[in-house]
Specification:
By secondary structure, the chain is mostly helical. It is 49% helix and 5% strand. It is rod-shaped, with a radius of gyration of 34 Å. The termini are far apart.
C-alpha cells in the first residue's frame, strides 16, 4: 500500500498516517506468524532426517531391506548324549 494511492482518495495526511500505522501493525503480525511457522517447519524437517526405530529396515533410498529368515536353533548332541537348545 502506498501513500499516493490513499491520497488519490482525497484523504488528509493525518488519515493516511493512521491507515499506514494500522497496515504496518498487520504486516508485523503476519511477519511474526511466518517466522514461527518457518521455525516449526525447520524443526519438523530436522526430525524427518533423523532415522527412527521404524526406519531401521530400510535402505537410504527408502526401500525395505530384505531380511534373512531367522533360523531356529538346532539341537546339537554332545558326546554325553545330552541336547542343548
Amino acid at each position: 500500500m502506498k501513500r499516493e494511492d490513499l491520497k488519490a482518495f482525497n484523504l488528509s495526511d493525518e488519515d493516511v498516517q493512521k491507515i499506514m500505522d494500522l497496515h504496518g501493525a498487520d504486516i508485523e503480525k503476519q511477519k511474526r506468524s511466518i517466522e514461527t511457522l518457518t521455525a516449526e517447519r525447520d524443526d519438523f524437517k530436522a526430525v524427518l532426517k533423523r532415522p527412527t526405530a521404524s526406519w531401521r529396515g530400510t535402505t537410504p533410498n527408502g526401500k525395505r531391506r530384505l531380511s534373512r529368515p531367522r533360523r531356529k536353533p538346532t539341537r546339537r548332541l554332545i558326546k554325553s548324549g545330552a541336547a542343548i537348545c
